[in-house]
Specification:
- The protein is an alpha/beta fold and 267 residues long.
- The chain has two domains: 10-194 and 235-259, NAD(P)-binding Rossmann-like Domain (Rossmann fold), CATH 3.40.50.720; 196-233, no CATH class.
- It has eight helices and seven strands; from the N terminus they run βαβαβαβαβαβαααβ.
- The chain has a seven-stranded parallel beta sheet, sandwiched between helices.
- α5 (159-182) links the parallel β5 (141-146) and β6 (186-193).
- α4 (106-131) packs parallel to α5 and α6 (199-210) crosses α7 (217-226).
- The longest helix is centred in the middle third of the chain and has 26 residues, at 106-131.
């Protein structure tokens, strides 16, 4: 059996209705895991979960605002109830609001930090509670946090997003240390995805044009490609492969790490 095989694993992917989260959910299922996706987009989430079932794995959907503690309690309980356990959390839900520092908007920053940082922290908290010895799942597990290449480079108009994703990186490393020292048996790692042409990535390019940092979406995207040694944008499959790796036994000694999946852009 391949060390990348996830048969018998039970996963929860937040923000799984579309974009990267959807790709992560399908990649985990195709590797053998059973998957629950959570999102605030109920109709789209239910449709995605129905398509997941066609892969031949157990799947489900739960409404989930990652900033709300009770929603986390319900999402984890639903995952365990539907799948019979909880081994992998992909803390993917997040937002990006473009803005120059000269136009600093504290409400936008608070919203990004609430979802990207507080949401991730709550996910770690509830994964630890469930996966640790004596928890409702109790067999250890894996937490994969989704940071961004924006945490590793200085890109204009992304100060708030970059700061929030840098915080995700620090959360990851502290969580891994606490899990080890307290015997939780949970590995915690994060990804730094590069720019992908999802709805969020496309909107970001458009925002850059709107605020005067590019003449066209094509020019903005071309500038990103020029900064990327691999010579292209990332694809959802690139990011999803890294999630499968971190969830698998092939990464059993990878802990407290941040893995760039950015074609070299952030080096």
């Amino acid at each position: 059996m391949s060390r990348f095989d996830l048969s018998g694993k039970r996963a929860l992917v937040t923000g799984g209705a579309q974009g990267l989260g959807e790709g992560f959910a399908f990649a985990l299922a195709e590797a053998g895991a059973d998957v629950v996706i959570s999102d605030v987009q109920d109709d789209l989430g239910k449709q995605t979960a129905a398509r997941l079932a066609e892969v031949g794995r157990r799947s489900g959907f739960v409404h989930h605002d990652v900033t709300v503690e009770d929603d986390w309690t319900n999402a984890v309980a639903t995952t365990i109830d539907l799948l019979g356990g909880f081994d992998v959390l992909v803390n993917n839900a997040g937002i990006e609001i473009t803005g120059l520092l000269a136009s600093f908007n504290p409400d936008d920053w608070r919203r990004m930090f609430d979802i990207n940082v507080v949401g991730t922290g709550l996910g770690i908290k509830h994964a630890f509670a469930a996966m640790s010895p004596g928890g409702s799942a109790g067999a250890g597990g894996v937490v994969i946090n989704v940071s961004s290449v924006a945490a590793t480079i200085a890109y204009p108009a992304l100060a708030g997003y970059s700061a929030s994703k840098s915080a995700v990186d620090r959360l990851t490393r502290v969580a891994a240390r606490e899990s080890g020292q307290l015997g939780y048996g949970v590995r915690v790692n994060c990804l730094y995805p590069g720019l992908v042409a999802t709805e969020m990535g496309t909107r970001l390019a458009g925002d850059m044009v709107t605020i005067g940092l590019g003449d066209s979406v094509e020019q903005v995207v071309g500038g990103v490609v020029e900064q990327t040694p691999s010579g292209r944008l990332g694809e959802v499959a690139d990011m999803a492969g890294a999630v499968v790796y971190l969830a698998s036994d092939a990464a059993q000694f990878v802990n407290g790490a941040g893995i760039p999946v950015d074609g070299g852009m952030g080096m």
